[in-house]
Design a protein that fits this description.
Elements lengths: L1 H13 L13 H25 L2 H6 L1 H25 L13 H6 L4 H39 L16 H12 L9 H6 L4 H35 L6
């Protein structure tokens, strides 16, 4: 039963590779039949749980409720999407985002659920570091707008350079990963080599300090919650 459950969960998740839009697109009828079979298997597994579990315990378990709701949402979305296709009305399969619920909430996925719970418990504790990083990013973006926005600089493509605040935020956010370095700083550097100091300061503060701090906080808190969870203090 465990192997069969994992197989159909994997099959259900892999449908996204073959559903529209997809690189290896299959006919809608084929993918919909496979999805219906997967949902029937999930419903059968849920029915099996209900047979071997006391009724009051079964309905108090939020995992069973989540699975039932995910099955109903998936079937409703599939029916609506199929009906709209008949009338040549374009729509999207919004129920795809609920498919990971099956992976997390079945009893066979206890280890995955514990890891997910550790990630969930870690998020509030890294919020302060993330907000501090965003404050630094927004502040540097405002400085860049004041430094370069009024100098009528152009990029290599002839577009205005650092004249829109939201675009500056995005470009500097990418610069944290060094993916657009040194291209993003070249128009300013060509205007005056002293402007390189701004980007050097930005990389030191945000890439080397904040990213290292962010990684350390995430790692330490995740390790702490994972140790508590697998140590039995946070029972499933």
């Amino acid at each position: 039963m465990r192997t069969a459950t994992y197989f159909f969960i994997f099959l259900n998740l892999s449908l996204a590779v073959f559903e529209e839009p997809a690189v290896y697109q299959l006919p809608f009828l084929a993918t919909s039949l496979v999805e219906v079979v997967c949902l029937l298997v999930f419903f059968g597994r849920l029915t099996h749980f209900a047979k071997v579990t006391p009724r009051n315990v079964f309905w108090k378990d939020t995992k069973n409720i989540c699975i039932m709701v995910a099955i109903l949402l998936s079937l409703s979305d599939l029916a609506i999407y199929g009906a709209l296709r008949i009338y040549n009305v374009r729509s999207i399969r919004w129920s795809r985002i609920v498919r990971p619920i099956f992976l997390i909430n079945f009893a066979e996925s206890r280890q995955i659920r514990r890891a997910f719970r550790s990630i969930r418990n870690t998020l509030p504790e890294i919020t302060y570091v993330f907000l501090l990083f965003m404050f630094s990013l927004l502040t540097f973006s405002l400085m860049a707008l004041k430094l370069f926005g009024e100098r009528n600089l152009k990029t290599a493509e002839g577009l205005p350079y650092f004249s829109n605040y939201l675009e500056i935020v995005f470009d500097l956010y990418v610069l944290v990963t060094t993916a657009n370095s040194p291209d993003v700083m070249m128009p300013a550097f060509d205007f005056s080599s002293w402007y390189a100091l701004f980007f050097i300061a930005f990389v030191i503060v945000n890439t080397y300090i904040f990213m290292s701090l962010f990684l350390a906080v995430v790692y330490n808190n995740y390790k702490k919650h994972l140790k508590v969870t697998f140590g039995g203090l946070n029972c499933d």
